[in-house]
Amino acid sequence: MYEGIVQDLIDEFSRLPGIGPKSAQRIAFHIVQTENLDVTRLAELLATVRENIKFCRICGNVSEQETCGICRDPRRDSTIICVVEESKDVAAIERTREFRGLYHVLGGAISPIDGIGPDDLSIQPLMQRLADASVTEVILATDPNLEGEATATYLTRLLTTLEIRVSRLASGLPVGGDLEYADEVTLGRAFEGRTTLR
Amino acid sequence: MIVTHLSLRDFRNYAEAELELHGGTNLFIGRNGQGKTNLVESLVFLSTLSSHRVSGDQAMVRAGCEAAIVRTTFTHGDRELLAEVQINRSGTNRAQINRSAIRPRDLPWYVRTVLFAPEDLALVRGEPSGRRRFIDQLSMILAPRFSAVLADYERVLKQRNTLLKSLRGGLSAAQEQTLTIWDEKLISLGTEIIARRAVLVEQIRDPLRRAYAAVVDDDHEPTIDLSLSIDGYDVDADDTADRAANSAVPDSARIEAGFRAAMERRRRAERERGLTLVGPHRDDLLFGLNRLPVKGYASHGESWSFVLALKLATAELLRRDSDLGDPVLILDDVFAELDRQRRRRLAEAVTGFEQVLITAAVREDIPEELRAAPIFIRAGRVVDEDAVDV
Ligand SMILES: Nc1ncnc2c1ncn2[C@@H]1O[C@H](COP(=O)(O)OP(=O)(O)OP(=O)(O)O)[C@@H](O)[C@H]1O
Ligand SMILES: [Mg+2]
Ligand SMILES: [Zn+2]
């Protein structure tokens, strides 16, 4: 334990996802000790991000405006929608440069132990987008783990009523993992080799 | 395989220990509480990533320390390998083979042990969970990939139970629909587990019969069968005597159909109790002697003989499976439990294996043929005989 505010800082950092007590301590001391670190800019950035970042009205991706850059881009193929769990999955797929369609961010995956059911995900908005006849294919790119699979199965069943091609990312992704951690090549291949579910 | 060197750091009550071992019998002698079990437990942990004494890993790390390291050199034929596991008090464990990192769960593929311990009696006398753990552990050693199937099954079970519980409170139609998704996952993973267990049970039958005959010199017709909840077996109703034995190896299609039908039969009960009532997590192994269950019928000595035979049969299966040679047999304090005749017979049965590690508090408990050149243990140290005032 350290005195007062240093410990407060460490505690705050260790509340963040993916940061354990050791890393929190390292980051805190880095901030305290590094001479040419622009702490003011970092603090301002954090505050600005919280104020200005919104979620895209159409796809749910993080965005600085009402709608995100991808949804606004007229060159993107609006006949195909890739469904992902989180915004960070959008970023991961964009890095592969394999996909030129639009996205839909669900905001998680079905997981009863986390208290998340279909009603807690952005599924109704997705159905509304699909009601627009211009969409011909939906790619389900939920995480390759049990919850991601369950969500994909749920959506597949829901989509059977529509005249839309539904595909799932090809296997080859590390099973049990997170989409965002798959490397570009693997993820790119998974896109090419996606399998049509119906 | 033969462990030629064992090195411990901050493992249990060992601050530091370096130990040369050899093929054949290695005997460890020391008074109660000195660290004999700890020493052999380190090898068991290296080969199974679990202890037979506690479920958490933390107990392996010496009090006041952050991490324990178990390092061994072992040979098979003229190949030499180096295996290492670091057990961290907080954070995940690390494993190495020949100094390159591997996933800890792949360690059992390289290092194989079969432990005989006083706790084993619980295998025949205790709860079904212990017997399920026994058979699943064996599956994981034979096919490391299987640990992922078991972990997935556990997770689906937890998801499904949570959902069943919350359905009792009444939920939306959408949430109702997700139940069938978990049903299907449970059935497909569960079918794989049941099928795997059935194959193993089938494979262990003959070795078990032979091992029992070797330990007892009499044919008491030892049997092992699966009791399946999908066939109506209910762990909650203690009806050991009139359980239907399931001798035939069922194929996956039959298991899956049975699973689905059983789930349908118990659907209402599952919803009322908010609990998954059918599946491999509610199955049991039924051990028999003389056409009666071992649990609740066999004598103390018979129960012991059965357990020893089961472990010997396991060793036999592993020996057959591996191109790394025999598993290392570890006999922790078992001779003290046996009468003279069975001590001698067990000694005979184990000496056929490449390497055997034996611990005892009293040297006289060990059959004479195994008594050679003991290593003495005192207070977490390997010491000279002179220093021990036994
Ligand atoms: N994590 C740990 N840190 C320090 N000491 C430990 C730890 N775990 C166990 N011990 C100590 O190790 C001792 C037990 O050692 P062990 O079980 O190996 O005894 P043993 O020689 O097998 O005795 P017995 O003949 O009674 O079976 C106990 O004194 C216990 O306090
Ligand atoms: Mg002991
Ligand atoms: Zn958008």
Automatic annotation (TrEMBL), chain A:
<comment type="function">
    <text>May play a role in DNA repair. It seems to be involved in an RecBC-independent recombinational process of DNA repair. It may act with RecF and RecO.</text>
</comment>
<dbReference type="InterPro" id="IPR006171">
    <property type="entry name" value="TOPRIM_dom"/>
</dbReference>
<dbReference type="GO" id="GO:0003677">
    <property type="term" value="F:DNA binding"/>
</dbReference>
<dbReference type="InterPro" id="IPR034137">
    <property type="entry name" value="TOPRIM_RecR"/>
</dbReference>
<keyword id="KW-0227">DNA damage</keyword>
<dbReference type="Pfam" id="PF02132">
    <property type="entry name" value="RecR_ZnF"/>
</dbReference>
<dbReference type="Pfam" id="PF21176">
    <property type="entry name" value="RecR_HhH"/>
</dbReference>
<feature type="domain" description="Toprim">
    <location>
        <begin position="79"/>
        <end position="174"/>
    </location>
</feature>
<keyword id="KW-0862">Zinc</keyword>
<keyword id="KW-0233">DNA recombination</keyword>
<dbReference type="InterPro" id="IPR000093">
    <property type="entry name" value="DNA_Rcmb_RecR"/>
</dbReference>
<dbReference type="Pfam" id="PF13662">
    <property type="entry name" value="Toprim_4"/>
</dbReference>
<dbReference type="InterPro" id="IPR023627">
    <property type="entry name" value="Rcmb_RecR"/>
</dbReference>
<dbReference type="GO" id="GO:0006310">
    <property type="term" value="P:DNA recombination"/>
</dbReference>
<keyword id="KW-0234">DNA repair</keyword>
<keyword id="KW-0863">Zinc-finger</keyword>
<protein>
    <recommendedName>
        <fullName>Recombination protein RecR</fullName>
    </recommendedName>
</protein>
<dbReference type="InterPro" id="IPR015967">
    <property type="entry name" value="Rcmb_RecR_Znf"/>
</dbReference>
<keyword id="KW-0479">Metal-binding</keyword>
<feature type="zinc finger region" description="C4-type">
    <location>
        <begin position="56"/>
        <end position="71"/>
    </location>
</feature>
<dbReference type="GO" id="GO:0008270">
    <property type="term" value="F:zinc ion binding"/>
</dbReference>
<dbReference type="GO" id="GO:0006281">
    <property type="term" value="P:DNA repair"/>
</dbReference>
TrEMBL record, chain B:
<keyword id="KW-0547">Nucleotide-binding</keyword>
<comment type="function">
    <text>The RecF protein is involved in DNA metabolism; it is required for DNA replication and normal SOS inducibility. RecF binds preferentially to single-stranded, linear DNA. It also seems to bind ATP.</text>
</comment>
<protein>
    <recommendedName>
        <fullName>DNA replication and repair protein RecF</fullName>
    </recommendedName>
</protein>
<dbReference type="InterPro" id="IPR003395">
    <property type="entry name" value="RecF/RecN/SMC_N"/>
</dbReference>
<dbReference type="InterPro" id="IPR001238">
    <property type="entry name" value="DNA-binding_RecF"/>
</dbReference>
<keyword id="KW-0227">DNA damage</keyword>
<dbReference type="GO" id="GO:0003697">
    <property type="term" value="F:single-stranded DNA binding"/>
</dbReference>
<dbReference type="GO" id="GO:0006302">
    <property type="term" value="P:double-strand break repair"/>
</dbReference>
<comment type="similarity">
    <text>Belongs to the RecF family.</text>
</comment>
<keyword id="KW-0234">DNA repair</keyword>
<dbReference type="GO" id="GO:0005524">
    <property type="term" value="F:ATP binding"/>
</dbReference>
<dbReference type="GO" id="GO:0000731">
    <property type="term" value="P:DNA synthesis involved in DNA repair"/>
</dbReference>
<dbReference type="Pfam" id="PF02463">
    <property type="entry name" value="SMC_N"/>
</dbReference>
<feature type="binding site">
    <location>
        <begin position="30"/>
        <end position="37"/>
    </location>
    <ligand>
        <name>ATP</name>
    </ligand>
</feature>
<dbReference type="GO" id="GO:0009432">
    <property type="term" value="P:SOS response"/>
</dbReference>
<feature type="domain" description="RecF/RecN/SMC N-terminal">
    <location>
        <begin position="3"/>
        <end position="362"/>
    </location>
</feature>
<dbReference type="InterPro" id="IPR042174">
    <property type="entry name" value="RecF_2"/>
</dbReference>
<keyword id="KW-0963">Cytoplasm</keyword>
<keyword id="KW-0067">ATP-binding</keyword>
<keyword id="KW-0742">SOS response</keyword>
<keyword id="KW-0235">DNA replication</keyword>
<dbReference type="InterPro" id="IPR018078">
    <property type="entry name" value="DNA-binding_RecF_CS"/>
</dbReference>
